[in-house]
Amino acid sequence: MTRTTLPPQVAPPEFALSDHLPAAIVGVDVVALPVLTGSGDDGPTLGPGAADVADLLDLDLVGIAELHRMTGAVGETATVAVPDGSPANPALRLVVLVGVGSGAPTELRRAGAALAKAVKDREAVAASVPAVAEDAEHGLEAFVVGTMLGSFGFHWRSGGPQTRPVRKVVLAMGAGVEAGVEAGRASVARAVAVGGAGWRARQLATVPSNLKNPAWLAEQAEEMAAASDLTCRVWDADELAAEGFGGIVGVGQASDSPPRLIRLDYTPAGVSARAAKKLPTVVLVGKGITFDSGGLSLKPGQSMVSMKRDMTGGAVVLSTMAALADVGCPVRVVGLVPAAENAVSGGALRPGDVVKHWGGRTSEVTNTDAEGRLVLADALAYAVAELDPAVIVDVATLTGAAKVALGQQVAGLFATDDVLAERLGGAGERAGEPLWRLPLFAGYGDKLASKVADADNAPGGPGAIMAALFLQRFVGDVPWAHLDIASVGDVEKEWHEWTVGPSGFGARALLTWLGTEAPTDGIG
Question: What kind and span of H or E run contains 252?
């Protein structure tokens, strides 16, 4: 039988930093200039480099902005064709005016995404858009991330992709970058790592499940480990059964694609084995359900259409692990992805069955469509007993209740430690992946009672909270956070850097947190 293979995919743009403004950059076919909001009765203001481009091309760019009724609001764009180029740059064909608001990092990230959409299929763009940032480091990083993710595309068409991202973006910062070229390059490199993790998580979540099964996901993890100097271990179905991972085995037992457990380990570069043992360990756990039919508690047909992305949490953990070195993460990190396909067959897990998790706890399965918490429970129990974690964070498209509570632009955050919740919430805000803390209300705990097992996996009640309370029983006293990203798992319409389809939500927030100087200090 011929193996299904993914066709070649589009790549994100390449980025280069320049101390020139756009008019001085040759060989690009697009120039992008910022438009800021005015104050009071003032109209929009054109930013750095606009006057030089206007003189070079003999264009009234202010008048063009007014003709397009630009206000400088973030995300606005207006294009001007330049069919004959310029004497200095015959390749030039287009000028793009981009609204940047006040130039805050969030606005620059969104401006980058707007620019990316306006310059698809172009060869190269010289952009002075991030030069308006008051906070040069974070503004530059935000613009690069937004431009990358606004360019995202995925295809499985016989004729290739319908559009391609612009190949190269020259960050034309002008004289303002001269004093901090190295810092600017470091910001760009960090941004490419963070944006790249978001891209990879999004791509993994978008791959159809006729290719993406647990074994394929494990292969991707092994490739990432080899490229990123991580160690990798994969448990196969027989090993999982022999070692007592009953939740993962139970969820995956109906599928022709057996389950896996993936483990990746990161240690900061240059740290000796002895010193590494003294570093705190953060464990990241990502739900890796490569397709979710609901099992015998079958989902409605329309609800299954997007279930190739039910491994988004796993994709986020894998993508985060691969980028830790690039953001300078100073602590040890272990990533665990319990991967299974929740299928239907004569061997399927049944409502009323009892599974025994790693470590001995048991769960009565009253709903086979509440499978994510069963596989996560095994990984959490293993992490607590075997990895001596200082902090555990799990990420999962876990409950539809999170979407009911929060809509589709913010994810749910549960945490047993206030400092951890604050760190993750702040990181999510800075990264453009907002998290809203929800209560681990102990008063609902008695709803988890089962007549035959330690817990009922789907007892009813407030769905997102009940799922979190179920998982909490497997982490003991270890500081723990649970990110329920089901609310943001799918993007239904283009919205700034979010493109339609699986979102890959969470990698940017985790890397922003783990890339700080002391991510675990004060926790616990």
Answer: helix 246-252
